[in-house]
Specification:
With 550 residues, the protein is an alpha+beta fold.
């Protein structure tokens, strides 16, 4: 019997063309629409993040926007394990802030990527995800050392120089914008009362030092006295001799007050009012005499603890450099220029070990029955062009790490672009330079000489080299840095008028550590009087102050 012919079932589709029912073998099989023009680029994508580069974002996408038909779900084991991909997408190199025209000004309008939906992963997926996260952490660690120019790091909250007690009474708060508008233009030239100490002559060979012929900074073992106002025997003598004088201060304390509006770090000054006379003092064993570093920078140093570049260690380094430089550039062992009186702070066993310094005790009339006596310091002398004697103040600017202090490398720029180096220092150390200038003007010196000193190695704060020097006339330099002595005297007069209105007692001026503001406190008379200082004064009545060694 022959084979029986069975005609196939022909489906009739009156509303269109093609089959209208699904064959049994294809039933329940997912279908994803596609186009013949779609590129075939990937066989499988386990993470869903294969093409995050902008160049390939749309290259392999289907025009039908394929859905989740082929997503794999496995619920039998570890069904509770879920992972959310919150890592930051790595931008390709060509779009990472290089200034390409297409990306300029778009950072503010940048939209965050949509959050990935929760997805259960298999073991293979989890292993791959862990590898990817490990790679991201490695990349983040590499990026940590690089400076982010897009966004400045937030400045940490600073601590006050003194702990304010509950029983201290705030008399006045003075904000910097108001202080910056004060002026006292009618202050006459000062009168010299007493001059003491001896000065060495400046060695002019250091004027020829440059980057190519740098000189090592030497460690010079000399004593620097930082005696406060009420511990000065000559000021005690002047209190009795000058009956009209009613304000007594040192140039370091007076300059700090005059340049208060430029300061960022906290500091404090003790004020004693006794019998209508005002004495400005600093507290013992404080950091008042240390030089700040990058205080007014937009990104001041914020390292902590024993770090080489912590604010305290940088201040110690700057003070060390300044002391050594100011003595190294002098002609030691030669004849000195002597004032009429001897240095009042030298002990018998310190003879020959004391730094070159002269003290000028000068008197200013500030009006309103305020007569101020200030002890001013002079560092050295030199012969002028006509062989006349010129007085000098010598200070050292020190570079610690150009990568974190403006990006100006002194070894590259100092000889060719000295103005750029000085401008960067004026931006980062505006307060320190202003105080040096004020001290030079108060002392009446003829020249203010700066030395440029940098680290021999950026990671070694113990060795330094001198790269050059620069000299200015103090009054002209004050004009260059926009420092007004009328405003400086106005701030002092404002503070003195406030204190004169108070009764006799002890007061404290404190710069707020985080706000541009000064506060005047009324404090108990026994504040800061420690037992140790009382014992030492009983044992040694001539004990003046602890000297600093370079």
């Amino acid at each position: 019997m022959g084979a029986r012919f069975e005609p196939p079932v022909i489906q009739d589709n009156p509303t269109g063309w093609g089959p209208n029912t699904i064959p049994v073998q294809f039933k329940d099989m997912p279908y994803q629409p596609f186009s013949k023009s779609d590129r075939l680029g990937k066989v499988s994508d386990w993470t869903g993040a294969t093409y995050q580069d902008r160049r390939h974002m749309n290259k392999y996408q289907s025009q039908f926007q394929g859905g989740q038909q082929y997503s794999y779900y496995h619920d039998e084991d570890e069904s509770s394990f879920q992972l959310v991909d919150t890592s930051r997408i790595t931008k390709p190199a060509y779009g990472r802030g290089r200034g390409r025209g297409g990306f300029r000004g778009r950072w503010n309008s940048f939209k965050p990527p949509p959050t990935t939906q929760l997805q259960t992963l298999t073991k293979a997926q989890k292993i791959k995800e862990r590898d990817r996260q490990r790679q991201v952490r490695k990349w983040q660690k590499q990026q940590a050392g690089r400076q982010n120019y897009q966004r400045a790091a937030p400045i940490k909250s600073r601590e006050a120089s003194v702990t304010v007690k509950a029983d201290w009474l705030v008399i006045e708060e003075m904000d910097f914008p108001r202080l910056g508008k004060l002026a006292l233009p009618s202050v006459n030239d000062p009168a010299d009362l007493i001059q003491a100490g001896s000065l060495e002559y400046y060695d002019k060979t250091y004027d020829r030092v440059n980057v190519k012929s740098e000189k090592n900074l030497q460690r010079i073992d000399r004593i620097f006295h930082t005696v406060s106002t009420t511990d000065d025997p000559i000021i005690r003598k002047l209190v009795k001799a000058e009956s009209q004088a009613n304000v007594f201060v040192t140039d370091a304390i007076l300059a700090t007050l005059m340049c208060a509006t430029r300061s960022a770090y906290s500091w404090d000054i003790v004020v004693d009012k006794i019998g209508g006379k005002i004495f400005f003092d600093k507290r013992e064993n404080t950091e008042f005499d240390l030089l700040t570093v990058s205080e007014t920078s937009s990104e001041p140093p914020q390292d902590e603890g024993n770090s080489l570049n912590s604010p305290r260690n940088l201040a110690l380094e700057a003070t060390f450099v300044n002391h050594n430089f100011s003595q190294q550039v002098l002609k030691t062992g030669e004849e000195r220029y002597n004032y009429t009186e001897e240095n009042p702070f030298v002990d018998a066993d310190e003879e020959g070990k004391v730094a070159s310094v002269g003290y000028r005790y000068r008197k200013w009339d500030l009006g309103n029955n305020l007569v101020l006596v200030c002890r001013c310091e002079v560092d050295a002398v030199q012969h002028g062009s006509n062989n006349e004697i010129q007085f000098l103040n010598i200070k050292a600017l020190n570079e610690w790490d150009s990568r974190y202090s403006g990006g100006v490398d002194w070894r590259q720029k100092l000889d060719t672009q000295r103005g750029a180096v000085l401008a960067n220092e004026l931006k980062n150390n505006a307060c320190k330079l202003a105080k040096w200038t004020v001290q030079a003007i108060l002392a009446g010196v003829d020249n203010l000489k700066f030395g440029y000193v940098t680290r021999f190695n950026v990671k070694d704060s113990g060795r330094h080299v001198i790269l050059g020097t620069q000299q200015f006339k103090p009054v002209e330099f004050a004009q260059q840095i926009n420092l007004s002595m009328d405003n400086a005297w106005g701030v002092v007069r404002c503070v003195l008028d406030l204190i004169m209105q108070q009764k006799d007692g002890k007061y404290l001026i404190v710069k707020d550590p985080n706000k541009p503001m000064l506060r005047l406190y009324d404090i108990p008379d026994d504040t800061f009087d420690s037992e140790d200082s009382e014992e030492s004064s009983d044992e040694d009545p001539d004990n003046i102050d602890t000297p600093l060694r370079a």
